[in-house]
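step=encode ok
step=design start
structure_in=
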């Protein structure tokens, strides 16, 4: 006899954890709500990002949050973001999908599908939106987080490497984050990197037994990541490892020199970090990361990026160079907040219209009249006038419009300015002029 479907399901499906019916349902671990009082500062950070992008000639693009899993998997064989951290699932049609862990792969896909490659090059694009990585949540690291991503696709000019760095630096500086550390490296390209990797492997092989587990595996699968290792026991070996910037081909060396020259000319300070290789596989030549100057760990990185001249081809499109960066908005917002920047969470309402119970239609009409001048909230709750005044005050309302049944017949209201306590009688039709 065939096993019942549910039994088959039990065998093949992972165990589903259900919330007991007696418990309230909470947000998914590692994902959080951005509450109204924090949104004001988020808006400031996002507006700054959009403004700076526009000033540098970058146009906004929006790509889906869900992408074919293969798009992400193909561009990063051994990276953490792909190997362990990808939210992968199959849809009802059996398609293998993923929640995007980053934006670059999707933007490059969209660049071709949207024929941006036929427009003047490079295509300068930016995107803001949620990304998803199944990692261990901690302060500054979330499973859903937001990125500001900037890409220049279709040119291999090192001037663009410097330009995207300048976009990031300008944005953060204008947000008041002046004490930043920019770390810079070049990791060569398909021409010079293979020979360097052989050198690196030859250096590490005799040390293999002394490396920790992940690094032993990386030695064969992705030796460049050995330089990225943060495990204390492996640190002494790194210091003596060959440096890729000593083994660049002529073109990569010229580009590397040009990027540094351009950054010098732009007055952007940087630190050369021979161990900076970045977590994603697709990089070529310039790679960089931005940190707050007092931070040390990878968890503090405010952003990172680099050139990815092999990415388009890895996705199955014609070979096309590109460079970009992405910054974690959650972390930038936290720093801007910590720096003491205050943005008044604009009150939900400047005017609160309140009236006697049973006057809902009238109250709504007065609110409609006032709305031509100011933002208006209506208090429909059945509670005392005193209680209504108290909550209007808490809401931060500048004015309260009081409606009583008797006055409503004469189409007049009491307009009270909360700060001064002054109250005047105003005809409904004159309310906008008083509030203007
Ligand atoms: P990434 O270094 O993987 O690069 O991420 C960029 C930034 O996103 C990080 O520096 C950090 O600020 C933020 N971030 C990453 N993971 C988390 C997390 N779990 N929680 C909070 N913030 C996080 C990329 O994503 C590349 N696509 C950048 C790029 C664009 N390269 C070329 N173009």
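sequence_out=
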């Amino acid at each position: 006899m065939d096993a019942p479907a549910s039994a088959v399901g039990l065998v093949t499906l992972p165990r589903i954890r259900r919330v007991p019916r007696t418990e309230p349902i909470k947000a998914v671990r590692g994902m959080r709500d951005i509450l109204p009082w924090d949104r004001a500062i988020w808006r400031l950070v996002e507006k700054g990002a959009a403004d700076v992008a526009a000033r540098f000639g970058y146009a906004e693009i929006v790509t889906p949050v869900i992408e074919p899993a293969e798009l992400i998997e193909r561009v990063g064989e051994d990276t953490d973001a792909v190997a362990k951290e990808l939210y992968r699932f199959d849809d009802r049609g059996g398609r293998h999908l993923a929640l995007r862990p980053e934006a670059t792969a999707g933007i490059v896909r969209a660049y071709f599908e949207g024929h941006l490659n036929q427009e003047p090059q490079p295509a300068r694009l930016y995107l803001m939106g949620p990304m998803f990585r199944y990692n261990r949540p901690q302060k500054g690291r979330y499973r859903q987080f937001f990125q500001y991503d900037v890409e220049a696709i279709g040119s291999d000019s090192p001037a663009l490497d410097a330009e995207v760095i300048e976009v990031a630096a300008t944005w953060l500086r204008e947000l008041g984050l002046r004490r930043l550390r920019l770390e810079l490296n070049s990791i060569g390209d398909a021409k010079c990197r293979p020979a360097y990797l052989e050198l690196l492997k030859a250096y590490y092989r005799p040390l293999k037994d002394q490396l920790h587990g992940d690094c032993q595996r990386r030695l064969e699968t992705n030796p460049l990541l050995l330089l990225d290792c943060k495990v204390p026991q492996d640190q002494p070996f790194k210091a003596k490892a060959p440096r890729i910037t000593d083994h660049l081909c002529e073109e990569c060396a010229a580009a590397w020199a040009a990027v540094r020259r351009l950054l010098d000319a732009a007055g952007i300070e940087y630190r050369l970090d021979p161990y900076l290789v970045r977590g994603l596989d697709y990089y070529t030549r310039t790679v960089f990361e931005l940190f707050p100057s007092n931070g040390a760990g990878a968890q503090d990185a405010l952003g990172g990026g680099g050139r990815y001249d092999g990415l388009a081809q890895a996705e199955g499109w014609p070979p096309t160079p590109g460079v970009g960066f992405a910054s974690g908005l959650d972390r930038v917002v936290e720093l801007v907040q910590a720096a003491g920047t205050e943005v008044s969470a604009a009150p939900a309402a400047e005017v609160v219209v309140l009236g006697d119970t049973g006057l809902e239609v009238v109250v709504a009409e007065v609110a409609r009249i006032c709305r031509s001048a100011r933002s208006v909230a209506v208090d429909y709750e059945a509670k005392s006038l005193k209680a209504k005044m108290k909550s209007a005050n808490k809401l931060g309302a500048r004015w309260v419009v009081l409606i009583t049944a008797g006055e409503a017949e004469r189409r007049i209201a009491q307009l009270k300015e909360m700060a001064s306590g002054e109250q005047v009688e105003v005809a409904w039709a004159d309310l906008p002029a008083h509030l203007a």
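step=design ok
step=annotate ok -> The longest helix spans residues 36-55.
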